Amino acid sequence: MSRFLYSLLTFFLLPLIFLRVWWKGRRLPEYRQKMGERFGLYDASPSGPIIWIHAVSVGETQAAQPLVKGLREAYPEAEILFTHMTPTGRARSLQLFGPGVLRVYLPYDYSFAMARFLEHFRPSIGIIMETEIWPNLTAECRSRGIPLLLANARLSQRSAGRYARFPRLTRQTMMSLSAVAAQTDEDASRLHDLGAENIQVVGNVKFDAVPPPDQLSTGAFLRRLIGSRLVLLAASTRDGEEKALLDALVKKPLAGALLLIVPRHPERFHEVEHLAQARGFKVQRRSLGQPVEADTQVLLGDSMGEMFAYYTACDVAFVGGSLLPLGGQNLIEACAIGRPVLVGPHTYNFLDATEKAIQVGATLRVADADELIALTRVLFSDANAREAMGVAGRQFSAAHRGATKQTLSIIAGLLKRKAAPEAAAPAAQ
Fold first, then answer.
1. How many Cα atoms occupy the beta-carbon half-sphere of 69 within 13 Å?
2. Alpha helices for 324-382 (secondary structure H)
3. Under CATH, which number does the domain 213-399 receive?
């Protein structure tokens, strides 16, 4: 497929895009807001040079924290522009960075919309977090001489296979990237095979995120609301996982313990609450801020941006997206807090970090929800084992820091190369 055919196909898919936005807006009305931005129409205007970061949703936005801190120190005269694709990502950037950054939706990948976006903001550089690669976006950046860095880049074998189905389009897109800062050698190899050039392996910037003091305080407060009961946290769970966990608990309860469930997507809070109630569990919501009653069995983590707090408040953490073939979620935050971590069999999106955490004893892998509950029972009965896993997790997190510094060095090089021909242009005239 060529980029022309890709663009033609996306044009015919436009009605389905509107239908998808309408459908998602049933549960999360924010999806239906600011539709003009989805096509490159903006009210926000820059007041200085722009450094643009694209973080599709919550995870990528949180991963950008140490990078934003470094960019602000290195380029105090520049404005940071965040683009997102989801309302939850946009809301998380507001929580993390407040009004000190610009934030808008990235347009859908139509050439005319991407051109409007780039003409409006005229970024000095674009930094795409992890794996958001769009053919028309990269082509429009290249035609304008805007350097584009794929930062904290990861690409699973499964995702690489999907890209490889369209070799011509993928190679054109990858070659339009100015540089790639890959998490692992395996990621770098897959990206190179698809056509990316100028790749450096720098590690994972998520290791550089420091637990915010206010989150630690919130976690301690939440722990006081819970009391002395042992807590199993099911973090960033996905559709189907909560049902499996709750069914496993019905069969073999964790006597006296509390299950704290934090669904990955906020539009599922009500659904998960009903799942628990339908199985006879008494449920409370974290958002009410009330002491957890002694007969409450499930606490629903229905708040955004408090994952460090939830890890602080628990005794054992299961990191979701891994019981079903969904690729898993980031376990680094749980390790950094020093909690024993459990994961399911499906962690291909975070394979390197997960395998290394297992090797050092910070994480254990389970086959299914029944084994998850059984292993939690074992850990609940052994405080020394929990402490040893927590110490291993903190040491593991500390040992892998430094990716942000290397990424900032790559950004500095790209900006320097961009500035060189611009400075020479008047002399050539």
1. 11
2. 332-337, 351-359, 369-380
3. 3.40.50.2000
Cα 411 to Cα 429: distance, rounded to the nearest angstrom: 29
Confidence of residue 18 (pLDDT cuts 50, 70, 90): confident
Question: Per this entry, what is the length of the chain?
Answer: 429
**Total-model pTM:** 0.88
How large is the average pLDDT for residues 368-380?
98
User: How far is the C-alpha of 10 from the C-alpha of 122, rounded, in Å?
Assistant: 25
Q: How far is CA 37 from CA 81, 172, 227, 233, in A?
A: 14, 26, 46, 37
Q: Do domains 26-203+402-418 and 213-399 have the same CATH topology?
A: yes
- Contact of 364 with 403, CB cutoff 8 Å: no
Please report which helix (H) or strand (E) contains residue 223, including its range. Answer: helix 213-226
Average pLDDT of the chain to the nearest whole number: 94
Task: State in words which class domain 26-203+402-418 has.
Answer: alpha beta
Catalytic residue at 132? Answer: no
The span from the CA of 257 to the CA of 351, in Å, is 30
Q: What is the pLDDT of residues 139-193, one digit of tens each?
A: 999 999 999 999 999 999 999 999 999 999 999 999 999 999 999 999 999 999 9
Domain ranges of the chain: 26-203+402-418, 213-399
**Catalytic entry in 60, 140, 306, 333:** 60
Euclidean distance between CA atoms 346 and 343, whole angstroms? 8
pLDDT tens digits along 375-397: 999 999 999 999 999 999 999 99
Phi, psi of 41 (to 5 degrees): -110, 120
